[in-house]
Design a protein that fits this description.
Helix content: over 70%
Radius of gyration: 22 Å
Distance between the termini: 42 Å
Order of helices and strands: HHHHHHHHHHHHHHHHH
Strand content: under 5%
Number of strands: 0
């Protein structure tokens, strides 16, 4: 029995061989570095705004200034990601974000920052992210061999999870020892470093845009690919509603519940940290494992996204809430890795950026509305009521999605199957065969 864990460890380590591929190794190191800086900057920006203006309203405006252009330009970013070289778009986005973070740090260091400057620089950062993400999603299959694509997505998820845990902790130390401006300057450096790594990539040229094809035509074509797969738009809609009904209220009301029922900020910090730990653990558990029915697995495990809300609703001990957060973090890593691998295998690469822009647009579109409504609804009812609605929704929505043959029937294409299809794949049958 003792040899089984060692065997599993050796098997997982063998799948780290994806890092031996030069292109992916360069891509992974650069991206993970920038994600670490982004996680640090999230903490630093809040303290920077409060230090500069002392206004919670100003902080809300600055946060919204980043989200609005991100949502508004995602679809356009998807079109450009399929028309132009994706690496070039990512490079421009990284340099833009490096300049905006660096400029913000300089303004803070000189003590001359104004609210309009904070809003403008935050908005430009959102523009950079809107164009970066669809191209990033579309470039991943080009920097790794098809056989190792699942491991590549798991490693990217692991990098995000580690950055999500280490970034805020490191930022807290640097803000205490130095200043928010120092952290923002470090963030600018991580974007610049990511750009330098991207410049070393060897990627095939992107397809040329069809002569006379406009942006609206490109969007319609991307929408056609997106809607051709029933499982794709169904799970995207499910995820959109999850952000609105479950996760947004949890992010707003979770801290309030921690303050009301536990020890306040310390308890909430523990819950958030354990969620990040669960994300790392989920990535490690999934490494080397390739379930044949990926969306069946993701639909089953993402019921656990509601676990921390359920524990808070029940007034459970803090340890139980942390256990729920750990489970939610594991589910998050499993979902992200399997979901991205499935999309990359079934969606033609020349449409991947546009399709992912529709997926991301769904994820971001009404989440802010959920953030805005959670507090007022909790004041009219209670924190437990709002969170309980989210828990019930998640269970019911997952049960419905699980009943759909188009979701249960999707299978991962085996390594022997080679690259994803060049044309939109038809819907898999309920028996789950890969597309022709």
């Amino acid at each position: 029995m003792a040899s089984r864990p060692r065997h599993s460890l050796r098997q997982a380590l063998r799948h780290l061989a994806v890092l031996r591929e030069r292109n992916f190794r360069i891509f992974f190191i650069g991206y993970t570095t920038s994600m670490l800086g982004t996680a640090m900057a999230t903490v630093a920006l809040a303290f920077a705004v409060l230090e500069a203006t002392g206004s919670l309203s100003d902080l809300s405006f600055v946060m919204a200034a980043r989200i609005v252009p991100l949502v508004a330009l995602l679809l356009g970013g998807g079109v450009l990601g399929d028309r132009l070289p994706r690496r070039l778009i990512m490079l421009c986005s990284d340099w833009l974000r490096a300049l905006t973070q660096g400029a913000l740090a300089v303004l803070l260091l000189t003590g001359s920052v104004r609210l309009w400057q904070l809003l403008l620089l935050a908005a430009l950062g959102g523009v950079g992210e809107a164009f970066f993400k669809p191209s990033f999603d579309g470039l991943v299959p080009h920097v790794v061999s098809p056989a190792r694509l699942p491991d590549a997505n798991t490693m990217i998820g692991l990098g995000n999870s580690v950055a999500g845990v280490a970034g805020p902790a490191l930022a807290g130390v640097l803000v205490t020892l130095a200043s928010p401006a120092t952290v923002l300057m470090v963030d600018a450096g991580t974007y610049a470093l990511c750009a330098l790594f991207l410049m070393r990539l060897h990627v095939p040229p992107s397809r040329a845009a069809v002569v006379g094809t406009g942006v609206l035509r490109e969007l319609r074509d991307g929408w056609g690919v997106f809607t051709a797969h029933r499982w794709l738009w169904t799970v995207t809609l499910q995820f959109t509603m999850f952000n609105f009904v479950v996760w947004a209220p949890y992010l707003v009301l979770g801290p309030a519940a921690a303050d009301e029922s536990y020890t306040g900020a310390g308890s909430w910090g523990a819950i958030v940290a354990v969620y990040g730990l669960g994300s790392v653990l989920g990535g490690l558990l999934l490494l080397g494992r390739r379930p044949s029915r990926p969306l069946l697995v993701t639909t089953l495990v993402t019921v656990l996204w509601a676990a921390p809300s359920a524990a808070l609703t029940a007034g459970a001990p803090l340890g139980v809430v942390c256990a729920g957060a750990l489970c939610a973090g594991v589910a998050n890593s499993v979902f992200n890795a399997l979901w991205m691998t499935t999309i990359q295998q079934y969606v033609p690469r020349e449409a991947l950026s546009r399709v992912m822009s529709y997926v991301s647009f769904g994820a971001y579109s009404i989440g802010p509305l959920g953030l805005a409504l959670a507090g007022p609804l909790a004041e009219r009812t209670s924190i437990s009521t709002v969170l309980a609605v989210g828990v019930c929704w998640q269970v019911a929505a997952n049960a419905f999605v699980l009943s759909l043959p188009s979701v249960r029937g999707v299978r991962l294409i085996s390594a022997k199957g080679g690259a994803p299809p060049a044309k939109p794949a038809r819907e898999p049958t309920p028996q789950g065969g890969p597309p022709a």
